[in-house]
Amino acid sequence: MRFHTRKWVKPQDLNANKTLFGGALLAWIDEEAALYTIIQLENKNVVTKFMSEINFMSSAREGDIVEIGMVVVEFGRSSLVLKCEARNKMTRETILTVDRIVMVNLDENGRPKAHGKSEIEFVKDRLQKED
């Protein structure tokens, strides 16, 4: 799993227990899933369709650095299925896992659109193809 994003836990991200609010972490994950999908499918029109069970395993506190990892587990006709892990950057302790996040590729009218992809592409490889 590649960890692409890091977030710094700030006071506005805390819950009443002074730990990271789960909703803040889920918003970060949803944004990362969208960005990851946009880059993979080369289309800015994507939406989150589904998130499976969310497993909170530990917490984070103010000042911690949280890193978010994504990996593609399945290519659908118009979708990408991702697996996610959020962990503490310094301790490597897993904070949360999500086994399935389904992201859907859309056309300009907001309808599912086939993306024609079947494997992960890295931007550096895509750029080399264009040269």
Your description of this structure?
With 131 residues, the chain is an alpha+beta fold. It has one domain (2-125): Hotdog Thioesterase (Thiol Ester Dehydrase, Chain A, Roll). It is built from two helices and six strands; from the N terminus they run E-H-E-E-E-E-E-H. Strands 1, 2, 3, 4, 5 and 6 form a six-stranded antiparallel sheet that branches. The longest helix has 20 residues, at 22-41. The mean pLDDT is 94.
CATH class: Alpha Beta
**Which structural class do you get from the secondary structure elements?**
alpha+beta
How many domains comprise the coordinates? 1
Task: Give the helix proportion (percent range).
Answer: 10-25%
From the coordinates shown, what is the CATH architecture?
A: Roll
The average pLDDT value, as a whole number, equals 94
Please write the string of helix (H) and strand (E) elements.
Answer: EHEEEEEH
Shape: elongated
Distance between the termini: 28 Å
SS field, number of helical segments: 2
Q: How many beta-strand elements?
A: 6
